[in-house]
Specification:
The structure holds two protein chains of two kinds. By secondary structure, chain A is an alpha/beta fold. Helices cover about 25% and strands about 25% of the residues of chain A. Chain A has one domain (about 5-60, about 85-165): 3-Layer(aba) Sandwich (Rossmann fold). Chain B is an alpha/beta fold. In chain B, helix 2 (about 65-75) links the parallel strand 1 and strand 2. The chains are: A alpha/beta, B alpha/beta.
């Protein structure tokens, strides 16, 4: 199937986000693809606060079933989350479970004023009441396939479809 | 035979000893611990992984410090923690030990942290409870203290990055030390080229060389060029017995002073599992000095125990 151009979607997101950001906006990307996208958006938007990164492994709802994720990275939020407007960035929005975990983790850093969700692709099939405020594109992806973001050595972003 | 610590899928179900553990499991524990370190700097110093699980600290031998670090680790993972100090006198028979464990299992314990004065106690409990419940050995006799070995390895990795060019000297009562044994195993698994033990003959186990270490009865020669110096606690009850004449004499030959430490590398780190006997195995000037990483070891110990519990709890 034909996948959209991630670079074009990224530019689209920058355009949508530009009016919404202020010097006080905090941005947090979810490992790994979401953090790549967030790095790009953060740079293009010229955000003042350093970028935050979340690894949601300690908050996943399938820990009892699947155990701890094999390679956990440290989460880092290098700014105060309390009373702040946050942009939470992920590459592909699907069931919504990752976002729930990320929100739970964010609240352990403090009580933000608001969280808006940014996704490059919304592939639908939500299992939780979560929806993105800023979205590059919607795309129906067959069940059993995994849509993910890639980044090459030159920093170029692209989408890839794998068997789950 | 399968490693009794692993379940049918090859995952770590119990942590009993570091001996024979695959390198990738050890590296995974250390990497996971690194991710837990930051949790303690947040507003909420907890993650929800073990929510709804019960961790029983069953200490047949007293150790407030070790028990406390396990308790903190379990609480930071949101587990319910129950501490039990079981007197050794009533449980010297194996049957009674397993009866105790059966009772705790009936109270829906998901994880046991066990300290016992007899080597092999944790193994026996792990065999008894099976892979559905998890057992962590918090020290069994002279045999093993795997989480201490892991936190020592974590500390060394934190300061020295890489094990492949390190010289590590372990000093003191090797004979009675499960800390030394676990550390030697993990250092070997992680590929440390030179592990030295520095001790009088009377405090060395027979055939210690077979563990892959070099023996130095002379502390000065043993410390020469060391990157890491690990001091062991000299247990008071050994003092004045047939193995050791006096504290003063031990300190003279095997106590770590600034002058002896100067023989190690200029950037050497000094470690100690605690609690320290100042003036017996370590001089205060060293314990409080710039080379000492004894307090960071305690902080890392909690993260390492969180890592072990969260990996076991998900297996």
């Amino acid at each position: 199937m034909q996948l959209p151009d991630a670079e074009a979607l990224c530019a689209e997101l920058v355009k949508k986000l530009r009016p919404a950001v202020t010097p006080a906006t905090g941005m947090v990307g979810i490992h790994t693809g979401g953090a790549w996208l967030a790095e790009r958006l953060h740079r293009e938007l010229g955000l003042a606060l350093p970028l935050g990164r979340l690894d949601i492994s300690f908050y996943r709802d399938d820990y009892r079933k699947s155990g701890l994720h094999k390679s956990v990275k440290a989460s880092q939020i290098p700014f105060d989350v309390g009373d702040r407007r946050l942009l939470l960035v992920d590459d592909v929005l699907y069931t919504g479970r990752t976002i729930r975990a990320a929100m739970n983790e964010l609240f352990d850093y403090g009580r933000p004023e608001s969280i808006a969700l940014v996704a490059l692709i919304d592939r639908g099939e939500r299992q939780l009441p979560i929806c993105p405020q800023y979205c590059g594109a919607t795309l129906a992806v067959p069940k059993g396939k995994m849509l993910r973001l890639d980044r090459n050595d030159a920093g170029r972003l692209s989408l890839r479809l794998d068997d789950a | 035979m399968r490693n009794p610590q692993l379940n049918a899928n090859g995952e770590l179900a119990h942590l009993l000893t570091l001996e024979g553990l695959p390198r990738e499991i050890i590296v995974r524990i250390l990497d996971t611990a690194e991710s837990f370190l930051g949790v303690t700097e947040r507003e909420v110093k907890k993650v929800p992984l073990l929510r709804g699980m019960s961790v029983f600290n069953v200490f047949f031998e007293n150790s407030t410090r070790t028990r406390t670090t396990f308790e903190i680790a379990a609480k930071r993972l949101s587990a319910d923690v129950i501490n039990l100090n079981v007197s050794t006198s009533s449980t010297t028979k194996g049957e009674t030990l397993l009866d105790t464990v059966d009772n705790l299992a009936a109270m829906h314990a998901d994880m046991f942290v066990v300290r016992h004065s007899q080597s092999g106690a944790a193994h026996m409990i792990a065999r008894h409870v099976g892979p559905e419940r998890h057992v962590i050995n918090a020290g069994d006799g002279r045999h093993a203290h795997p989480t201490q070995g892991l936190l020592d390895a974590y500390t060394i990795r934190h300061y020295k990055k890489d094990f492949s060019a390190l010289t590590v000297a372990i000093v003191g009562d090797i004979l009675h030390s499960r800390v030394a044994r676990s550390l030697i195993h993990v250092l070997n698994i992680l590929g440390t080229p030179e592990v030295r033990v520095i001790a009088p003959q009377t405090l060395l186990p027979a055939g210690v060389e077979s563990l892959g270490v070099r023996v130095f009865p002379d502390m000065r020669r043993g410390l020469a060029g060391a990157d890491v110096v690990v001091m062991l606690r000299l247990q008071n009850e050994r003092m004045g017995g047939p193995l050791l004449p006096s504290a003063q004499e031990f300190f003279k030959y095997y106590g770590l002073t600034p002058e002896k430490l100067a023989l190690a590398k200029p950037d050497a780190i000094v470690m100690h599992p605690g609690p320290m006997n100042r003036g017996i195995e370590i001089d205060s000037a060293v314990a409080d000095g710039p080379h000492s990483v004894i307090l960071p070891q305690v902080t890392f110990g909690i993260a390492v125990r969180m890592a072990v519990m969260s990996i076991l709890g998900g297996a």
